[in-house]
Amino acid sequence: MNKFGSLNIKIALIISGVLIALVVLFYTQILAQKIQKRESDIAKLYAKSMEYLANDENSSGEYGFIFDQIIPQIDFPIIATDREQKEIILTKNVDYDTTLSQAKTREILLEKAKEMDEINSPIIVSYKDSIILNYIHYGQSSLVTELKLLPVFEFVVAGIFVFLGYIGFSYIKKNEQSNIWVGLSRETAHQLGTPLTSLFGWSEMLRNIEPQTIELQEITNEISNDLDKLKKIAGRFSKIGSKPNLENKNIADVIKKVSDYFEKRIPTLVSADGKKFKKVQVRINSNGKSYASINTDLFEWVIENMLKNSLDAMEKTSGEIVFNISDSHSDLHIDVTDNGKGIDSKFKKDVFRPGYSTKTRGWGLGLSLSKRIIEDYHKGKLVLIESNPGKGTTFRIKLNKNFDK
């Protein structure tokens, strides 16, 4: 599945999750509002009954109906106060300490009545619509409170589930990727072993051919250099998956060694009409004290990948790759800048993704592997600093320093 299909699935899952959450929230709020309306109707009925009894002098027998039929239906907190709201007439479903003094109890209940008024406006009980007899203060039942908190609880549980699922899948995916890297690397090292041994033998036979001309000596020396390089590459692959030994090295010297090897192997830029221009130049700017803790074999691999990546980006009549090395108190920065074709802004986030490549050849693993070596094995950082189409690109490698030298 390509990255766009994967992205669409992720977006669809997120949208579905949000819609489900909104539907649950909406439905829960409707239920809470219905229960609140029911409680409000009961409170109003109670108030109207009290008002009716107060206005009808011959309704003494109706008190039983209120206490037997209406009050038992009340399952939410309710407090009735006098018209001055200074005395408590009746309470139901209100929790308070019954061991307190009468004055303290009244103070607490009046405070609770004010809190209820913030939830629901008090209901007035009046005599002949003109004289206020008392006020009915009421809150909301525990069921309404729980229903209102239910969406929050559901969001929290869903969030925890999604977070744990994300962590779990990320861990599994990372382990799978790591196992693939390790397996591929060690199998490559194993496969390189047999032809390397044979080539070393053929190289030694070439050295023993008489007479040894200058051209033959140069060829055999370069073959030996390439064989040593292949041997080093096989050694690098065998180190993947193992904890590398880090040593403090002069980074400028390590980069120069890699650059010198590439000097004879960097292609000359050729125009469309076949006219040759000067080779790509590699410059190293350093203060001479660029020491950091690295594994030389693996770090050289990173520099080679950076050089190859910059070389592949060259489309102009001249090319330049510059390594600017600077250090701070605890870190060493290596800015790798080229004047190649640059990277389009919409692809910048993908440059370190395994498999991403703008070239027709290759697997798109160079930058991904380099980032893994720097961050996983050297505890540093490899980031894209700047890239402009037609102007060039700058990557930054950040390494840890152990001491000043």
Provide an overview of this structure.
The protein is an alpha+beta fold and 405 residues long. The protein has helices at 3-55, 63-70, 102-119, 142-207, 214-239, 251-263, 296-312, 366-377, and strands spanning 78-82, 88-92, 123-127, 131-138, 247-250, 268-270, 276-279, 281-285, 291-294, 320-327, 331-338, 381-388, 392-400. The chain has a five-stranded mixed β-sheet. Strands 2-1-4-3 form a four-stranded antiparallel β-sheet. Strands 5-9 form a two-stranded antiparallel sheet. The chain starts with a helix and ends in a 5-residue tail after the last strand.
Fraction in helix: 40-55%
How much of the sequence lies in strands comes to: 15-25%
Distance between the termini: 50 Å
User: Per the principal axes of the C-alpha atoms, what is the gross shape?
Assistant: rod-shaped
**How many separate structural domains?**
2
- The string of secondary-structure elements, in order, is HHEEHEEHHEHEEEEHEEHEE
Which sheet architecture does the biggest sheet show?
5 strands, mixed
Nearest-integer average pLDDT? 75
* Oligomerization status of the protein chains: single chain
In the CATH scheme, what's the topology name of the largest domain? Heat Shock Protein 90
CATH architecture heading of the largest domain: 2-Layer Sandwich
Number of discrete helical segments: 8
CATH class of the largest domain: Alpha Beta
CATH level 4 superfamily of the largest domain: Histidine kinase-like ATPase, C-terminal domain
Low-pLDDT runs: 1-6
